[in-house]
Amino acid sequence: MDILLIGGLWLNGSVWDRVASALEPLGHRPVPLTLPGQGDGSVSATLDDQLATVLAAVDAAPGKPMVVGHSAACTLAWLAADRRPERLAKVALIGGFPTADGQPYADFFEVSDGVMPFPGWGPFEGPDAADLDDGARREFAAAAISVPAGVAEGVVRLADERRFDVPVVVVCPEFTPEQAQECVRDGDVPELTRAKHVDFADIDSGHWPMITQPVELARILAAAADGA
């Protein structure tokens, strides 16, 4: 199965290299995506541009792919389910949840000169970054790509009720499956509260398991794809 890999804010497709290398021997074809505005040099990219890249990869897959979104890109993966519900085998959400219809995609941090730069490690102290050593933090910050305002401030539009039929697996890094289940059960994540098939998988990592636990993450994603 094709497994489309979408990194979160400030990341390009290369962040998935070690996950991709571990997925191939497990019988799947990893397809890391570099999104417009997050690796192609564009600062004018929009959320619609990023979604178009994801949908093009879905349409190019030979069968039904699994779409994997990390962090903010969990919403991009869910937008793919909204636009192509009949084409997806499953959606995997790593360290995040889909944003609801009508809400900004990822207006989490200050936008300056048309982009949202990486804000430094202050907002991520604690479980998010506990497993990143000083070297990994320096490497991440040096490679971080400022996200265009047109992406961060883009408004999410969801319309097709068939998205709730697409199976979902929530991969839980800095939070536990029990905490995620409580959020879904309490209605804090309305999109997943309405989804008909939601599973949860635990991984012992911070917010970026593709960096600190790539082999285990690949195993979890392969198992999710095998069960699709």
Quick rundown:
The protein is 33% helix and 15% strand. By secondary structure, it is an alpha/beta fold. α1 (17-23) crosses α9 and α2 crosses α3.
Overview of this protein structure:
- With 228 residues, the chain is α/β, with parallel strands linked by helices.
- It has a single domain (2-226), classed as 3-Layer(aba) Sandwich (Rossmann fold), CATH 3.40.50.1820.
- The chain has 9 helices and 8 strands.
- The protein has helices at residues 17-23, 47-60, 74-83, 134-143, 149-152, 177-185, 190-194, 209-212, 214-226; strands spanning 2-6, 29-33, 66-70, 90-94, 115-116, 147-148, 168-172, 198-202.
- The strands form 2 sheets. Strands 2-1-3-4-7-8 form a 6-stranded parallel beta sheet, with helices on both faces. The chain has a two-stranded antiparallel sheet with strand order 5-6.
- Helix 2 (47-60) packs across helix 3.
- The chain starts with a strand and ends with a helix.
Q: Per CATH, what is the topology?
A: Rossmann fold
Question: What is the count of structural domains?
Answer: 1
Which of globular, elongated, flat, extended, rod-shaped describes the shape? globular
Runs with pLDDT <50, length 5+? none
Helical content stands at: 25-40%
Tally of alpha and pi helices: 9
Largest sheet: 6 strands, parallel
Task: Report the end-to-end length measured between terminal Cα atoms.
Answer: 10 Å
Category by helix and strand content: alpha/beta
- Tell me how many strands there are: 8
InterPro entries: AB_hydrolase_1, AB_hydrolase_fold
Keywords: Hydrolase
Domain AB hydrolase-1: 3-219
Organism: Streptomyces liliiviolaceus
